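Please fill in the sequence for the structure shown.

STRUCTURE ENCODING:
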């Protein structure tokens, strides 16, 4: 009897270890699968405010903005949501050659060349996953000037550089330069209000006339402060700092009429 039990125990040991190893492998696989599913879910479920609106601001806003008369304002969630399937067809299907209408942005345009494959996939996935609005990122806390410059550089690269160029030199006869801009450096208040409200009509910058549309971007007070602080401290400009409190005050005022004289700077 004792011999029989001993033999059975010896036979059970390999089986027990096999079960333990199998269980460990299953646990590792399950954890990896959960991580992959979580990652895929994150990648497949972008939201408008967090992921899509920044892409539209950087690549589509020269046409699709609230001042536009003949195309839809994609900087507004309700408008973008209602037009989401056509956006997907133009941005993704036409680009892949499976939709007969012209791709957006227009092929070989600066906006199209700046739109990355990852951004196109993000737009496609946003539509496919239901076009969720989401929530805007929480406002950041107090920042030093250097921190504002760093944050503003990212915004400038993703939003402003499409028109004003990464060098700040603008585009001749289209978009005015920000580099060494006499218009920008003459009046900080005017610059802030231009970003808040946008601007239409003729403007003279560094002795050259420009007559294009500057759209109003749905940026927070902190966003505007950061990007303008970056611009003022780049491209040979005056080195001023813009703070969110300044933007907040000027947001309550009326926009400048085109061609008006610069307002007195109440912060200097």
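FILLED IN BY: designer on duty
SEQUENCE:
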């Amino acid at each position: 009897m004792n011999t029989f039990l001993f033999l059975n125990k010896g036979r059970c040991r390999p089986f027990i270890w096999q079960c333990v190893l199998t269980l460990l492998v299953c646990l590792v696989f399950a954890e990896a699968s959960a991580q992959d599913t979580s990652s895929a879910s994150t990648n497949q479920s972008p939201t408008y405010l967090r992921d899509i609106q920044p892409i539209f601001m950087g690549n589509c806003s020269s046409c699709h903005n609230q001042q536009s008369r003949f195309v839809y304002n994609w900087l507004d969630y309700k408008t973008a949501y209602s037009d989401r399937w056509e956006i997907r067809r133009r941005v993704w299907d036409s680009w892949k050659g499976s939709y007969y209408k012209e791709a957006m942005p227009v092929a070989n345009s600066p906006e199209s060349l700046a739109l990355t494959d990852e951004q196109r996939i993000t737009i496609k996935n946003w539509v496919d996953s239901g076009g969720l609005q989401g929530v805007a990122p929480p406002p950041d806390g107090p920042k030093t000037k250097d921190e504002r410059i760093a944050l503003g550089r990212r915004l400038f690269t993703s939003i402003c550089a499409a028109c004003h160029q990464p060098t700040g030199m603008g585009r001749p006869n289209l978009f005015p330069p920000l580099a060494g801009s006499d218009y920008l450096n003459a009046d900080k208040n005017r610059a802030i209000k231009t970003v808040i409200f946008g601007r239409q009509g003729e403007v003279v910058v560094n002795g050259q006339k420009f007559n294009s549309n500057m759209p109003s971007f749905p940026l927070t007070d902190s966003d505007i402060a950061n990007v303008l602080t970056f611009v003022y401290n780049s491209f040979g400009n005056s080195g001023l700092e813009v703070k969110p409190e300044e933007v907040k005050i000027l947001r309550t005022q009326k926009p400048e009429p085109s061609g008006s004289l610069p307002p007195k700077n109440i912060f200097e």
